[in-house]
């Protein structure tokens, strides 16, 4: 994974948080929702990543006139043979970039649900599996809302994480301009999709202490009933909390983040670092929160302040490893 990151950083300048979350999503076999203005290397990141793992990459530019067949494929009649053949859509790839996903109507967005959850599509009654590993990275533009369709809650919940991508610093932008206007950097393929699948299986063997799983359960439950956990000042700002899928994704992402950091066990810092990315898109804010200018990240910070991560979580792991 370090070699993959090294190759991607040959092309992409900065965006360390974003790149780390992309690798976490791949290891945890989840999907990523990215919010950021145009020109922040979102497409370039996924395209470069596909080259490093010898995988296929496809991009779909979502528009209001898109139909589900443009996404998953359709049946085509051959006049010469009199038979129907299946034409597969762009979802049959390893890394799929759904650019400006909120510009497509709900019917097209829902067509993405099955392939994101089940890793398969159904065309004319026949089920077809997509290649593995499979990652959907969808982008949203936060500043332009004309002609957009809000993502359904069911689809937003399918995304393992939502990452906010910001502008680079002046130093990073200087390097970007210097690198883009100079000779093109060559990116080497350092691994394969088969090896990546092995790393995904190895990642799932990482140890997560039961106290950390309990912490994830309590943190997600606090988004549903803040008063029960002593966070009364957030109750008026939330209309709906996170689903149990958030708890599962929190544990999976913390395990993948620990794997990236060179450990086969999770520490509290892993879960604390990844929690905002897992939870921010799963909270439904009330009208009062919007009028008071309270963001989902601010509410998550309040909950995490009242519910600190547990200490001494590795005692059980140490005893198991030592045979005590």
From TrEMBL:
Pfam families: AAA_3, AAA_lid_2. It comes from the Bacteria. GO terms for biological process: regulation of DNA-templated transcription. InterPro entries: ATPase_AAA-3 (IPR011703), CbbQ/NirQ/NorQ/GpvN (IPR050764), ChlI/MoxR_AAA_lid (IPR041628), P-loop_NTPase (IPR027417), Sigma_54_int (IPR002078). The keyword ATP-binding applies. Keywords: ATP-binding, Nucleotide-binding. GO terms for molecular function: ATP binding; ATP hydrolysis activity. CDD domains: AAA (cd00009). Residues 1-141 form the Sigma-54 factor interaction domain. Belongs to the MoxR family. This is MoxR family ATPase. It comes from Noviherbaspirillum pedocola. The lineage of its organism: Bacteria, Pseudomonadati, Pseudomonadota, Betaproteobacteria, Burkholderiales.
């Amino acid at each position: 994974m370090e070699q993959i990151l090294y190759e991607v950083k040959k092309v992409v300048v900065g965006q360390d948080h974003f790149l780390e979350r992309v690798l976490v999503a791949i290891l945890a076999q989840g999907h990523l929702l990215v919010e950021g203005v145009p020109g922040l290397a979102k497409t370039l990141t996924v395209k470069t990543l596909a080259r490093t793992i010898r995988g296929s990459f496809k991009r779909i530019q979502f528009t209001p006139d898109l139909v589900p067949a443009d996404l998953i494929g359709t049946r085509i009649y051959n006049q010469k043979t009199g038979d129907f053949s299946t034409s597969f859509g762009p979802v049959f790839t390893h890394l799929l970039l759904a650019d400006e996903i909120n510009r497509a109507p709900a019917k097209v967005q829902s067509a993405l649900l099955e392939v994101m959850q089940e890793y398969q599509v159904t065309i004319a009654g026949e089920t077809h599996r997509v290649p593995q590993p499979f990652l959907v990275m969808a982008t949203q533009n936060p500043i332009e809302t004309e002609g957009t369709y809000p993502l359904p809650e069911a689809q937003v919940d399918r995304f393992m994480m939502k990452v906010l991508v910001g502008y680079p610093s002046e130093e990073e932008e200087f390097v970007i301009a210097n690198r883009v206007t100079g000779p093109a950097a060559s990116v080497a393929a350092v691994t394969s999709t088969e090896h990546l699948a092995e790393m995904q299986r190895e990642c799932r063997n990482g140890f997560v202490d039961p106290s950390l799983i309990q912490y994830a359960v309590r943190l997600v439950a606090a988004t549903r009933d803040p008063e029960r956990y002593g966070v009364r000042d957030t109750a008026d700002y939330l209309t709906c909390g996170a689903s149990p899928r958030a708890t599962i994704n929190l544990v999976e992402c913390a395990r993948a983040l620990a794997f990236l950091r060179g450990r086969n066990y999770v520490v509290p810092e892993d879960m604390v670092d990844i929690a905002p990315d897992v939870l921010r898109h799963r909270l439904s804010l009330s009208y009062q929160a919007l009028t008071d200018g309270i963001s989902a990240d601010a509410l998550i910070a309040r909950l995490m302040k009242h519910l600190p991560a547990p200490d001494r979580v590795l005692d059980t792991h140490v005893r198991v490893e030592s045979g005590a």
